[in-house]
Amino acid sequence: MLGYGMNKFGLYGAALKPERIIVAHVAFFVAIIAYWPGSNGVLGTLYGVALFVLFYGAVYLMNDILDYREDKKDPHNRKRVLASGLVTRREAVLVAALLLLLTAGGMFFYDISLFGLAILLWGMNVLYARWLKAIPYLDLFFIAWTQAIKFLAGVVVVGVSIVILFDVWPLFLAVYCAGLLMHVEKQMGRLQEGRERKFRFGHYTMRGLNRIRWFAILGGFGLTFSMWGHPFFFLMLLAMGIVTTLRFLFPGEKTMSAVHALEKIFQPR
Question: Has this prediction a pTM greater than 0.70?
Answer without folding.
Answer: yes
